[in-house]
Design a protein that fits this description.
By secondary structure, this protein is an alpha+beta fold. The protein folds into 2 domains: 231 residues, 3-Layer(aba) Sandwich (Rossmann fold); 112 residues, OB fold (Dihydrolipoamide Acetyltransferase, E2P), CATH 2.40.50. The chain contains 8 helices and 20 strands. The chain has a 6-stranded mixed beta sheet, sandwiched between helices. Strands 13-12-11-14-20 form a 5-stranded antiparallel beta sheet. Strands 15-19-16-17-18 form a 5-stranded antiparallel beta sheet, with no helix packed on it. Helix 4 packs parallel to helix 5. The longest helix is centred in the middle third of the chain and has 18 residues. The two termini are 39 Å apart. The relative contact order is 0.11. Its EC number is 7.6.2.9. Pfam families: ABC_tran, TOBE_2. GO terms for molecular function: ABC-type ferric iron transporter activity; ABC-type quaternary ammonium compound transporting activity; ATP binding; ATP hydrolysis activity. It catalyses: a quaternary ammonium(out) + ATP + H2O = a quaternary ammonium(in) + ADP + phosphate + H(+).
Length: 359
């Protein structure tokens, strides 16, 4: 089994401001990751966090300052990109405009010395697998954006790479095409069991395509886990927020309760006493009480700030003290809440998650 490992890999850059002549440093902090054969692994984070830099270190397009890239137990840190057996798919398709589609797809096979008849046969078969049967004789200029990206994917997988590297491959596509190509990549991964390292800032893409996700910030990995575990059990407030948690509040545990400036809730599991940290309240775990429920536990009052409807759900922002909570209600639930109306909210204590403050 071929396994890709990044072992304490680092990269440091220094940029100089021409006006002030002061230098700023960006670094990939010592990073260790293991990606198993056949796994789809995503690097997820905001722009500028180091995702693409890490991808380039794996590809051999950048040389690490420290650490190693290891494939199947062998160090490949000093191996040139073309000898690593990897393929890449970029944001743009980057097709050769003077070559027909089938020639573009077969280009990697040509570099491997495979005879023309055989490589064109494999190129046409791969085009069929990505939904472009009969497109081989066309030129890139005659293709749509989605078709070009399909050709780019076909060119990447026709060589049967040891690792497929994908750098924000859907970001230049409109939403409809993005979903279409995303579904195609998911199907190809399942069909070919390719090992994929995928870079994205879009959590929906990462959740759909990944077996595991590494969430990045400022050049480092905050947490690596399966998508559901990341969502339900984030180890860092940045991870929780980046994965869509709207209700993340700082406070302190006191006598089995989480206490913030504006509200307190009872917890059902033991925590260290007097510990500070963040409480994550997922929007779907909050419910609305029609009448005053001040005497009940885990119930607090708020004021409707905004109500919107999207894709079968109501999204409601509630002001409670200085905090704003977001709740989600299915469209089947009849709502008569209007902006400015006072309501009562209840949170299920079994659905709360506490992130202890480090240090």
């Amino acid at each position: 089994m071929e396994t890709l490992q990044l072992q304490a890999i680092e990269k440091h850059f220094k940029e100089t401001n021409k006006k002030s002549k002061e230098g700023s440093v960006f670094s990939i902090k010592p990073t260790t990751i293991t990606i198993q054969e056949g796994e789809a692994f995503s690097l997820l984070g905001p722009s500028g966090c180091g995702k693409t830099t890490l991808l380039k270190l794996v590809a051999g397009l950048l040389t690490p300052d420290n650490g190693d890239v290891i494939l199947n137990g062998n160090k490949i840190t000093s191996v040139v990109p073309e000898d690593r057996g990897f393929s890449m798919v970029f944001q743009e398709a980057l097709l050769f405009p003077h070559m027909m589609v089938e020639e573009n797809v077969a280009f990697g096979l040509k570099m491997k010395g495979i005879r023309k008849k055989q490589r064109l046969k494999r190129a046409r078969e791969t085009l069929t697998s990505v939904g472009l049967e009969g497109f081989g004789k066309r030129y890139p200029s005659a293709l749509s954006g989605g078709q070009k990206q399909r050709v780019s994917l076909a060119r990447a997988i026709v060589t049967k790479p040891r690792l497929l590297l994908m750098d924000e491959p859907f970001s230049a596509l409109d939403p409809g095409l993005r979903e279409e190509i995303r579904d195609l990549v998911a199907r190809m991964h399942k069909e070919y069991r390719m090992t994929i390292l995928f870079v994205t800032h879009d959590r929906e893409e990462a959740f759909q395509l990944s077996d595991r996700i590494g969430v990045m910030k400022n050049g480092g990995i905050l947490q690596i886990d399966r998508p559901r575990n990341l969502y339900e059990k984030p180890k860092d407030p940045h991870v929780a927020r980046f994965l869509g948690a709207k209700n993340v509040f700082y406070g302190k545990l006191q006598e089995g309760k989480f206490v913030s400036d504006d509200f307190q809730v009872q917890l059902t599991y033991a925590q260290n006493p007097e510990q500070s940290g963040w409480l994550v309240i997922r929007p779907e775990t909050l419910s609305i009480h029609k009448e005053s429920a001040e005497q009940e536990s885990n119930v607090f009052q708020g004021t409707v700030q905004k109500l919107s409807f999207r894709q079968g759900f109501y999204y409601i922002k509630i002001q409670t003290g200085s905090k704003v909570l977001e709740i989600v209600q299915h469209a089947d639930v009849r709502l008569d809440e209007s902006e400015g109306k006072a309501i009562w909210l209840r949170v299920d204590p079994n659905q709360l998650y506490f992130i202890p403050e480090k240090g």
